[in-house]
Amino acid sequence: MKRLSMLLLAAVSAILVSKELLAQQDSLPTITNTSREGVALRLVPGLAYTSATFGDDNPQSEGVFGITFGGQALAPVSRIVALSLEAIFQFYEIQSAHLNERLQSWYVMGGVEFSIGKAYLRPNVGAAFRLWAGGGSGTSTAPALGIAIGFEQMFGRSFHVSPEVIVRVAYEHGASTVLIGSQVPVGLRLTGGG
What we know:
Elements: H1 2-23, E1 39-54, E2 60-76, E3 81-90, E4 94-95, E5 101-116, E6 119-134, E7 138-151, E8 153-155, E9 159-161, E10 164-172, E11 175-183, E12 186-190
Antiparallel strand pairs: 1-2, 1-11, 1-12, 2-3, 3-5, 4-5, 5-6, 6-7, 7-10, 8-9, 9-12, 10-11
């Protein structure tokens, strides 16, 4: 129940921040930032710590550090707002404290990225597709919420590096996870110009 409350609090906070940024978009100072023009495609290596809580009657938690990797696409809709889609795979497994089973997750999430200058905030929602190995082999799906805070550094007209801090929360009956880490998306902005 505590994890579900955290999940709801994160969602409400992201919605309120998003609403406030959109409401004040026209009153924000104009920042010349042509680097934010065009669709961005990024490869996303990362390092994260995931805490997983297993069990219903007697919940027990396990935590693991590991490597993540995936991709992101962003499409601008205004000077400070872009739609985002990302798919991130967690390469490490988390051993259940209750049973002989291990968990890996593949996060697929969509959201909105709000930027001012080089800095950005990206709340997102989606799903954690879970791969179970061991005694409970199989798959499952859990709703997920996430948030990223970072900045985009351009090198030339289109290449960019965007270090960010991330938090992702996923919950399903008997298995909840909280992932905290950092990613360094690298990619190109496709501006269509010469």
